[in-house]
């Protein structure tokens, strides 16, 4: 197993943000984490990044406690793509920004290696961001910047990529482009993906497993193809859904019932 979460709990001061969370993620899996606002999705991602310490239970990465990994060693295993970035804070060219992702392979005064250049070039090519390398990150559109963020995560060459609502602020075309890129990374490059998303149709169609959180607890974990069930979605979101079949794939799509 790549990741094992064993009865994970996370408390901040007196607030219990996560409780009794147990699941596993195999190499090559694509897990979507869903759930209503405030259910603990980002908190779980922060635990997986090693930023938050469990208050009980533990996270195991490749057989070792995740918190026992030194910072750089963890960055060689896990990369992270945030929801949205304040572009003003990115006063770097795209090339410099993606190169910085190689810090995990360097120590002070170590030299830039051909392997670093190869990793950066490959990340730029896969994400189709090569044309932007001389641009300042703070001049890119939201969709372009999100691809650069994924390029940066890819340059880390870690087997696991965590993404926190990576398509939230993107238009439909760029949402599809990022979704397709994630599919390619997962299916053709063997990348293990854990993605927080509010797009349950995307999650049920494109991921392999879904973990549904509700009030910091695990409400459901299973095969993505089995997720779409009226009572489950109602219990999760306190919202009725209408189901229709995708005319091409035949998969169930859920539409929030506004009637
Ligand atoms: N530092 C903190 N101190 C106290 N409570 C916190 C802290 N950080 C997060 N929370 C609370 O923990 C709960 C879970 O937050 P989290 O950001 O993980 O939710 P989420 O599922 O990612 O939500 P969203 O879908 O809105 O992004 C929320 O109620 C939030 O207010």
TrEMBL record:
<keyword id="KW-0067">ATP-binding</keyword>
<dbReference type="GO" id="GO:0016887">
    <property type="term" value="F:ATP hydrolysis activity"/>
</dbReference>
<protein>
    <submittedName>
        <fullName>ABC transporter ATPase</fullName>
    </submittedName>
</protein>
<dbReference type="InterPro" id="IPR027417">
    <property type="entry name" value="P-loop_NTPase"/>
</dbReference>
<comment type="similarity">
    <text>Belongs to the ABC transporter superfamily.</text>
</comment>
<comment type="function">
    <text>Part of the ABC transporter complex HmuTUV involved in hemin import. Responsible for energy coupling to the transport system.</text>
</comment>
<dbReference type="GO" id="GO:0005524">
    <property type="term" value="F:ATP binding"/>
</dbReference>
<dbReference type="InterPro" id="IPR003593">
    <property type="entry name" value="AAA+_ATPase"/>
</dbReference>
<dbReference type="InterPro" id="IPR003439">
    <property type="entry name" value="ABC_transporter-like_ATP-bd"/>
</dbReference>
<keyword id="KW-0813">Transport</keyword>
<feature type="domain" description="ABC transporter">
    <location>
        <begin position="3"/>
        <end position="240"/>
    </location>
</feature>
<keyword id="KW-0547">Nucleotide-binding</keyword>
<keyword id="KW-1278">Translocase</keyword>
<dbReference type="InterPro" id="IPR017871">
    <property type="entry name" value="ABC_transporter-like_CS"/>
</dbReference>
<dbReference type="Pfam" id="PF00005">
    <property type="entry name" value="ABC_tran"/>
</dbReference>
């Amino acid at each position: 197993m790549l990741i094992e979460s064993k009865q994970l709990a996370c408390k901040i001061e007196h607030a219990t943000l996560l409780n009794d969370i147990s699941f596993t993620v195999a190499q090559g899996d694509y897990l979507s984490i869903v759930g209503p606002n405030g259910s603990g999705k980002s908190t779980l991602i922060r635990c997986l990044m090693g930023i938050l310490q469990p208050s009980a239970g533990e996270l195991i990465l490749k057989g070792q406690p995740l918190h026992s990994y030194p910072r750089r060693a963890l960055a060689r295993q896990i990369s992270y793509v945030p929801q949205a970035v304040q572009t003003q804070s990115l006063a770097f060219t795209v090339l410099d920004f993606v190169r910085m992702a190689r810090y995990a392979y360097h120590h002070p005064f170590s030299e830039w290696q051909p392997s670093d250049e190869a990793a950066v070039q490959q990340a730029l090519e896969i994400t189709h961001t090569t044309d932007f390398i001389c641009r300042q990150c703070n001049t890119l559109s939201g969709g372009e910047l999100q691809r650069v963020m994924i390029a940066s995560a890819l340059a880390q060459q870690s087997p696991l990529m965590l993404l926190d609502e990576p398509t939230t602020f993107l238009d439909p075309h760029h949402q599809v482009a990022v979704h397709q890129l994630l599919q390619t990374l997962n299916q053709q490059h063997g990348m293990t993906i854990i993605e927080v998303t509010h797009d349950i149709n995307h999650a049920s169609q494109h991921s392999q497993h879904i973990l549904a959180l509700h009030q910091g607890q695990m409400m459901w974990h299973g095969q993505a193809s089995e997720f779409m069930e009226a009572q489950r979605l109602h219990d999760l979101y306190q919202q009725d859904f209408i189901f229709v079949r995708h005319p091409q794939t035949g998969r169930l799509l859920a539409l929030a019932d506004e009637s």
